[in-house]
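Exercise 7.
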Amino acid sequence: MPSARPRPWLARTLKVGLRTVVALCAVTTLTHVTMVFLHVAPANAVSQRYSRQIDAWIYPLFEQNWRLFAPDPDSVNRRILARTAHTAPNGAVEVSDWFDVTAADRADVKHNVFPSHTTQNLLRRAWTSYVELHGGDDRPHSERAAMIQRYLYNIASDRAADHGDGPFESLQLRVLTLAIAPPPSPDGRQAPTASRVTENRLLPWRKVNRDGH
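Solution. The predicted structure, written as C-alpha cells, is:
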C-alpha cells in the first residue's frame, strides 16, 4: 500500500498560517513595548501627540503604577454595593436588593492561602481611579474618566451576574465610607468605638447588556 504523502497545498497553507501568527505576535509585542515606553517616558512630542492612543492602550489593564504591587493602605473602610434593575415583559421594573460587592471579594480572600492579587485590589483600584478622575461629580469630563466609569460598572456587573439575581439591564452603585475603629488601649480600659458611616455616596443608574456586561 503506497504511503500517504502530505498534500503540497496543505503544507503551504500551514506555513503561511504559521508565519502570519508569528508576524501578528511580533507586531503586537512591538506595539505593546512601544506604548509602555511612551507611557513611562518623560513627556515628549510623540507621547503628547498620541496621548489618547497611548492611554487607550495602557488603561486600565496595563497601568504602570507602583501601587499595583505596594498599594497605599486605606485610612477608611469602603463597602461598594450594587443593585440591578430588570424590565419585566409586562413593563414593570423590578429592582433587586443591595448586594455587597466588597463582601464577596473579601470572602474570596479570607482563609485563602494564596489569595488572588486581582481579587484583593481590582475593585479597590477601580474605585480609587474613579474618585481621582470624577471627584464628587459622577459625570465624566474626559475619555479616560468615561473609560474608568465603564470599568468600575463592568466589575460590579460581573459580580452581580455571578451573584445570580437573574437578568438585568441597569445597575446602580452605592459606596459607604466607614471610619476605622481605633484599637483598644493596652490597659483595656478604652473600648474601640464601632465603625460608623462617614459618607454614603449613591452613583447613578447605568445601562448594561442583557447578560450583565
